[in-house]
Amino acid sequence: MIPCQAGYYCRREGDVMVETLCPLGYYCLMGTSEPRKCEPDQLCAPGSSSPAQGGKTRDDCKPGEYLNIN
């Protein structure tokens, strides 16, 4: 069996593995069956495989900038 690719999560539905794009606010490591929620100071775009890819943290801000996350 081939593991689910990074940025997606896979769940078994009957005899089939269904691969679904990781949703906004979550990230999905390779082979995961459930998305992981990003921390409040991170931004994870749909399909993120980690908060560092497709997301930013407050540490990415330069002096005088801020990260506006709802």
Which characteristics define this entry?
70 residues; mainly beta; two-stranded antiparallel ribbon; two-stranded antiparallel sheet; 4 strands
User: Which runs of at least 5 residues are low in confidence (pLDDT < 50)?
Assistant: none
First and last CA, distance = 39 Å
N-to-C order of helices and strands: EEEE
Give the number of domains.
1
Q: How helix-rich are the residues, as a percent range? A: under 10%
Order of strands across the widest beta sheet? Answer: 1-2
- Label the overall shape: elongated
Summarize the structure.
This protein is 0% helix and 23% strand. The protein has strands at residues 8-13, 16-21, 26-27, 36-37.
Question: Could you walk me through the main structural features you see in this protein, from its secondary elements to its overall organization?
Answer:
0% of the residues lie in helices and 23% in strands. With 70 residues, it is mostly beta strands. It has one domain (8-60). The strands form 2 sheets. A two-stranded antiparallel ribbon has the order 1-2. It has a two-stranded antiparallel sheet with strand order 3-4. β1 (8-13) and β2 (16-21) form a beta hairpin. The protein starts with 7 loop residues before the first strand and ends in a 33-residue tail after the last strand. 19% of the residues are buried. The mean pLDDT is 82.
Helix-strand layout with pairing:
Elements: E1 8-13, E2 16-21, E3 26-27, E4 36-37
Antiparallel strand pairs: 1-2, 3-4
